[in-house]
Structure prediction request, 136 residues.
Amino acid sequence: MSDPRSAMEVLVSNNDRDRYPAVVHPDEANAEGFVKPWFDLETVRRIADRTQADAVRSGYDTADTVHVVDGGTEQGEPRALVVVVTWVRIPEKGVDGATEILVPDPETGRYAIGGLPWCWYALDDELKPNFPFRAK
Prediction:
């Protein structure tokens, strides 16, 4: 994750339907205006539920899915493994190439799901797309 001092708490979306709280950094936005959001584990679980439901509804060949595998607790904190599966790439890349285990940021414990390729955009105070992204 970039410098925590430049972090901004915002709501993000990538589909005009779902909104998730995240932390973004102005230097982690691309030229098109999309952002790389960092999510806490509770939000990752919500995203996992949504992506899996979308895959069941629309077909696995059209959606990436997020999965949270729980592993108890460590030093009082939940221990989890977050996995992203890009189903459409399994035939060409195999299971290893189509899955990604996300490593949380060591300082914040947040996860960057999808990064810039998922076309996340920040929402402004009126819940309209802040696109291209402009820091407050």
About this structure: The mean pLDDT is 91.
